[in-house]
Design brief:
Layout: E1 3-10, E2 14-23, E3 28-33, H1 42-50, E4 56-66, E5 72-76, H2 78-94, H3 100-108, E6 114-118, H4 124-192, H5 202-213, H6 217-236, H7 240-260, H8 264-284
Parallel strand pairs: 3-4
Antiparallel strand pairs: 1-2, 2-4, 5-6
Helix pairs in contact: 1-4, 2-3, 4-6, 4-8, 6-7, 7-8
Length: 288
């Protein structure tokens, strides 16, 4: 599910701004954009997120702003300076121009001559404020995801009802399909104009065998059971994995019904039910 959370935290050393956003994904995939001082805490942050989120693409952004100027170490490379200065001086004499001030600024601007390095502080002293700020942003993200989950649950319940309606339509046609199939088989046997009458009861036995082979009663019972379980799961404690499994089982039963049913109306309803089920399947992949 999608969501966004932002939090700002501070202590005596830094001000931290944390933004977390999530989008739909079947699995949990977390990515971090952290200040280099906090790279060592990525594993801890990943564990913290996994405690609240099981599915989704989660992006975490952390901005660090020190409250005081950082201590710097400045290194001056005298050999590099002398080499550059000699070259600049020779060119100035050759071209009969005097630009000592410009030359000095240019030479000192060379990275090889003058470098400034920030003296690192102790990241451990900032870990507490980092974790608490991320937790706060994560809580806000979770609230937003919960609101979306509620809307998603209501939509899924409507789709479950539509799927149940299709199964009931198939059930209503089942008896008619059975009788129609029996009449169709009798008509074919009549056209064969058998020379000898079959054994008493043999014709009924063969008809019963064929009709039983094409009967979809068991599949309908299982389909109804799966739909009831879908409703019970979404209303109790939605579990994405369980819902996904149940949708697969519903599809299995619909495929069997479609292949067994020797009736255009039933097959048309099966197609409609599969369309509803496909939308359900796409939605449940976003539920944790």
């Amino acid at each position: 599910m999608t969501g966004f959370g932002k939090a700002v935290g501070e202590n005596d050393l830094v001000i931290l701004t944390v933004e977390i956003k999530s989008v739909n994904s079947r699995f949990l995939d977390s990515s971090f954009k952290l200040p280099r001082e906090y790279n060592q805490f990525e594993a801890d942050l990943r564990d913290l997120i996994s405690q609240s989120i099981q599915r989704g693409r989660v992006d975490v952004y952390v901005n660090r702003q020190p409250k005081k100027d950082a201590d710097l170490y400045v290194y001056f490379n005298r050999k590099a300076f002398d080499a550059y200065w000699e070259i600049y001086g020779n060119l100035a004499d050759e071209l009969s121009c005097d630009g000592r001030t410009v030359m000095l600024c240019d030479v000192l601007g060379r990275r090889e001559v003058l470098t400034a390095t920030e003296i690192p502080g102790d990241p451990e002293s900032e870990k507490g404020i980092l974790m608490s700020t991320v937790s706060e942003a994560l809580d806000k993200l979770t609230v937003m995801r919960a609101r979306e989950g509620l809307k998603l649950s209501k939509d899924l319940i409507k789709r479950f009802e539509a799927l149940s309606g299709h199964s009931e339509k198939i059930a209503e046609l089942t008896n008619d399909v059975t009788f129609a199939l029996k009449d169709k088989l009798l008509q074919r046997l009549t056209k064969l104009s058998l020379a000898a009458d079959p054994e008493p009861g043999r014709l009924e036995q063969e008809l019963a065998f064929v009709v039983d082979k094409l009967d979809i009663t068991e599949e309908l019972v299982r389909l109804r059971s799966h739909i009831q379980e879908l409703n019970a799961t979404i209303k109790a404690s939605p579990g994405g994995r369980k819902l996904e499994f149940l949708t697969q089982e519903c599809l299995r039963e619909l495929n069997t019904i479609g292949s067994k049913a020797q009736n255009a109306k039933v097959q048309s309803i099966v197609v409609d039910a599969k369309c509803v089920l496909e939308k359900i399947r796409e939605q449940v992949q976003n539920i944790e």
